[in-house]
Design brief:
mainly beta, Thrombin, subunit H, Pdz3 Domain, 15-stranded mixed beta sheet, six-stranded antiparallel beta barrel, 7% helix, 49% strand, elongated, disordered N terminus
């Protein structure tokens, strides 16, 4: 699985809490992160990741869901493989907007299609914050949409992992760039994934947070955010998080627009990359928000959600 991350956290402070509009207690201080993370969501079903032409002339279409083998329900590839010993098999397949159908295959043919099946969603993104009091984290700033299913995937459990940037594909007008990242050799699990909400993924932090290079900082109220200089924290090489200069050029409700002004970042990445979603935005030493989008035709320009809105998880 490809992804990205490093650098962890700080001492726990006695925090003051504020209330969100929905009545939830939110920390007034958060630890800004910026590490690249690999994300893995384990799904409660098996789906077809690519169109597959079967020997009998039938097709398994991308997005089809395999619900059973020989009349036995299967919810994971592991369970499916246990059913493949029979010489002849019947797969029960559910297609979008169609009823279930049965497909007959030999054991060999069924084994040949296994590389085209998935029971998890993998991705990359950027860790946004950790609340040192509640030990909860937030990342991405937007919801994960499975590229095959074209919808937020239902999942039974999930995890985030430490990862490292191996290569950068620069952005150019009309051609979004991206980070090529891998889970680090020690395969460090950082936390679980409890929810995949409109404003990002959220869960419990499971790693040690005593030795962070960054300490908790205050959250900036929306009315304090100003046009002008700010920074984003993100990793573009290895697992090191760096601060890069941006200018906030527009503030509208809970959304910010900014342009990258940092010469080093522009030289190395062309601006905003896929995989930077979740990078913290900092202004005057306070936590402002998280990067969520890039402008495809103008990759030096990006958008961010305010952290006060992100903490709501879903809009009310």
């Amino acid at each position: 699985m490809k992804c990205h991350l490093r650098n962890l956290l700080s001492m726990a402070l006695l925090l003051v809490f504020i209330l969100s509009p929905n009545g939830e207690a939110l920390a007034k201080k958060l630890i800004p992160m910026g590490e690249s993370i690999g994300i893995q969501l384990q799904l409660p079903f098996i789906y077809v990741a690519h169109d597959v032409l079967l020997p009998n002339g039938q097709w398994l279409k991308k997005g089809d869901v395999i619900t059973g083998v020989n009349g036995t329900n299967v919810t994971s590839l592991e369970k499916m493989k246990l059913q493949l010993d029979s010489s002849k098999l019947t797969l029960t397949v559910r297609q979008k907007a169609q009823e279930q159908r049965d497909i007959s295959l030999t054991s060999e043919q069924a084994n040949n299609i296994l590389p085209f099946l998935k029971d998890e969603t993998d991705g990359i993104g950027t860790l946004t914050f950790i609340d040192p009091e509640s030990k909860q984290y937030g990342a991405l700033g937007h919801q994960i949409i499975d590229g095959v299913l074209k919808e937020p995937p239902e999942f039974k459990n999930g995890a985030i992992f430490l990862a490292s940037i191996e290569q950068i594909k620069k952005s150019s007008p009309g051609n979004p760039g991206y980070k090529i990242s891998v889970i680090e050799n020690n395969n460090v699990r950082l936390g679980n994934v409890k929810s995949n909400d409109l404003y990002g993924i959220f869960g419990s932090w499971e790693s040690d947070i005593k030795d962070s290079l960054r300490k908790p900082i205050e959250i900036m109220n929306n009315e304090e955010i100003a046009l002008g200089k700010a920074e984003i924290y993100t990793a573009i090489e290895g697992s090191e998080v760096e601060a890069f200069d941006v200018d906030i050029i527009k503030i509208e409700d809970n959304v910010l627009q900014f342009v990258v002004t940092d010469k080093e970042l522009l030289e190395k990445t062309g601006g905003i990359l896929q995989g930077m979603s979740g990078s913290p935005v900092i202004q005057n030493g306070k936590f402002v928000g998280a990067v969520t989008h890039m402008f495809v035709e103008h990759p030096s320009k990006g958008a961010a959600i305010t952290v006060t809105e992100m903490l709501k998880k879903t809009p009310k």
